[in-house]
């Protein structure tokens, strides 16, 4: 991937291997630091130095020198560090991020950075990040911009998620989403990710709790939905969750049982509550499609079979990719479509090839969630602009 820096005088292109250049003023503050990521973590201490991005030098930049990097990601990944481009609000140790100093020290033309990922594996150039503007050679048409709704990650409001031409109903009222180049796949709530994976034939982990909820409570949940019971109260009314005034939450009862006493059959795990909440959403959507009760329960059982591992991968048959439906996300006033060949990752060649679903489960509870992460699977298809000056994010078809 190239780093392009539109400066006040000229525009140049530089390899990312020179992201940091040690200069004589290097210093250590002695203050320890620790960061936990979705997969893996780092710990170390804060230091300061001049940091070089191509031929630009950011003066007196604080950063973390990692002395410990547990996790498979850091063992397998081919990179030397992480250049965080989020907002200062989530900066560890309240350190001013390098992006802020690029702007503050007047090193770039505009307070904007943008990403292009090259999805042609046969080409040597993996992509491009432009600090200070956008490269018109790498997108088509105009960007659709949406405002940043919460500073921390680059978070914005996203609308409905569609499989083929049908709404999943999950984000019809809006969902929070972030664009993140540090996430390989598209991550979303287990409820809708399971439905997507079922539609594309991806095989995940069979959830016995999900199937048990359908078997024991399916008819009851359907009856309550048909009688116009408030959906957020249904799982608490059937005894699988408790109601906190806005939505159902796990009961979370911790029981102390003597050696001669049996466990109460009335206590249910957090998984049963979560499975019930998912079933309510799925059944709601099927009722809108005027499906029969029998077909609804059969369909929900199929979804249970497709439940993916949390933050895990689900595989598909490579031969069936061409027949899979598209998956689309509504952002601003436009629908952003992903075709199967765009959301399926093919690893290896010939008979040894494996095809991986580009969708993985991540459940972020309210009030911050539900939260979607539009990672590289999405950003590889849509050129992404992070407009710091106007606090907005923009997407356009990549070229």
Automatic annotation (TrEMBL):
Which residues are in the Saposin B-type domain? 205-245, 269-310
* Similarity comment text for this entry: Belongs to the peptidase A1 family.
Q: Function of this protein?
A: Involved in the breakdown of propeptides of storage proteins in protein-storage vacuoles.
Q: Might you name a Gene Ontology BP term for this protein?
A: lipid metabolic process
User: Which keywords does this chain's UniProt record carry?
Assistant: Aspartyl protease, Disulfide bond, Glycoprotein, Hydrolase, Protease, Signal, Vacuole, Zymogen
Recorded hits in InterPro entries, A to Z, give: Aspartic_peptidase_A1, Aspartic_peptidase_AS, PEPTIDASE_A1, Peptidase_aspartic_dom_sf, SapB_1, SapB_2, Saposin-like, SaposinB_dom
Gene Ontology molecular-function annotations: aspartic-type endopeptidase activity
Q: Cellular component per GO?
A: vacuole
Domain called Peptidase A1: residue spans: 1-396
- Highest taxon listed in the record's lineage: Eukaryota
User: Can you name this protein?
Assistant: Peptidase A1 domain-containing protein
Which Pfam families does the UniProt entry name for this protein?
Asp, SapB_1, SapB_2
Q: Which SUPFAM superfamilies match?
A: Acid proteases (SSF50630), Saposin (SSF47862)
Subcellular location, record wording: Vacuole
For this protein, the record's PROSITE patterns field holds: ASP_PROTEASE (PS00141), PEPTIDASE_A1 (PS51767), SAP_B (PS50015)
**Presence of keyword Iron-sulfur:** no
Organism per entry: Musa balbisiana
Broad class of the protein's primary localization: other
